[in-house]
Every structure is written in C-alpha cells, then in structure tokens.
Amino acid sequence: MTIEKGPIQIRQFQQTRPIDRAQRPTTVMATLENTGDRELDAHPRLLMPQSVKIAGTDPNATVRFNGHEKKTCIWPIESAEPMTGELRLQIEAEGRTVAESVLSMQFLPPIAISKPRYIPDPLPVKTPLLIGAHHCP
Predict the structure, then answer these.
(1) Fewest Cβ atoms nearer than 10 Å: which of 39, 67, 80, 137?
(2) How far is the C-alpha of 59 from the C-alpha of 44, rounded, in Å?
(3) Burial readout 52-73 (b: 16 or more C-beta within 10 A, e: otherwise)
(4) Is residue 3's pLDDT more than 80?
(5) % pLDDT > 90, the chain
(6) What string of DSSP letters covers 63-120?
(7) What is the reported pTM?
C-alpha cells in the first residue's frame, strides 16, 4: 500500500533478500523521487515492530533532493525473534507526511551454521570414452 500526498513519491520499498532470518542482519531499501522542480529536504522514517531494530545508521537522517531527482535509501535491520510483521515507511517534507508505504516481512527462525562434513575427492569412472561428467561416491 502506498499513499502519496506531495512532491516526494516512493517508487520502491522492498527487502533486499528473498529470505530473512531472526538474529541475522538484513536490509530494506526505498527508491524515492522528488517530482517537483525545486530543492526539497525529506525525512524518511522507518516504523517497525518492537523486535526489529535499525543497526548502524541514523534512522532520522535528512535527505536533500534537487528537482526531479531520485535517491535510494537503505536501512540495515535485524529482528531479535522470528516474526511476521509490517514495516511502515513515512516520508515527511514541508512539515507533513507526504508519502507512506507498507512492507510485510517475515523473519524465519535462526538456524545454526555448521561446518560441512568431509567431502571426498572426485573419483572418475574408468572408461575408454571421454565423458563430460564425473562420479562422486
């Protein structure tokens, strides 16, 4: 859902990975466009469920747009627990909310990364023919 009431429009608002897991960093991105002719300062705000936090960037940064300029904003986020919820992006400019969009995200349970078991070296099959494959037992 996207609501646009002003010169700044949200062209895209999406997650950057197809699968996200709890307790692992991921990112969401938004492409914003100033459809007006004049310079404009915008304040993108990312509203999230309580277990999701922004990691490492200023969530209240100001973005300066020239006339008819597009910019991409990226937020590194992390969920403390598995969940499905909505992230809401609000763009404030000229003292009011001028655009808003909602992104539904699912954070799957974390899984432990384990060291793979030993993988044996390939053992080519003995044959008088040249075959473009090899056999691994």
Answers:
(1) 137
(2) 8
(3) beeeeeeeeeebebeeeeebeb
(4) no
(5) 60
(6) EEE-TT-EEEEEEEEEESS-EEEEEEEEEEETTEEEEEEEEEEEEEPP----PPPP-P
(7) 0.76
